[in-house]
Design brief:
Blueprint: H1 2-25, E1 32-40, H2 46-57, E2 65-71, E3 88-94, H3 97-105, H4 107-116, E4 120-129
Antiparallel strand pairs: 1-3, 1-4, 2-3
Amino acid sequence: MTTSRRKFLLTAPALAVAASVPALASAPEKQLIHHVYFWLNNPSSKDDLNKLIEGISTLQPIPTVRQFRLGVPAATTKRDVIDDSYAVSLFTVFDDIKGHDVYQEHPIHLKFIEKYGYLWKKVVVYDSMDI
């Protein structure tokens, strides 16, 4: 009886780890957050701002986009840590890196760059993964 109990206590942790391996293998990938900031060539042009917003809006139907948010700088209190010098921001979420990569090469995305790229002087992208 003591031998069986000792054997059980020694093998139980290994069994627990083995039982969790299939769960780890099938765990979903972490989502990718793709946040893009645009600075206009002509920052004072409302027409250019509206054209850029129109262009960015065309990206929403790309099938791998899970969340889509389009924004302009908020009128929050000025602080040293806030950069509100951009004109438009785009926040998108993808299921994984593969979904993001499909988005990057999608004809709608490529057409957006070709048709509206003349409007911006600078683009900064922050990609991050859920933890």
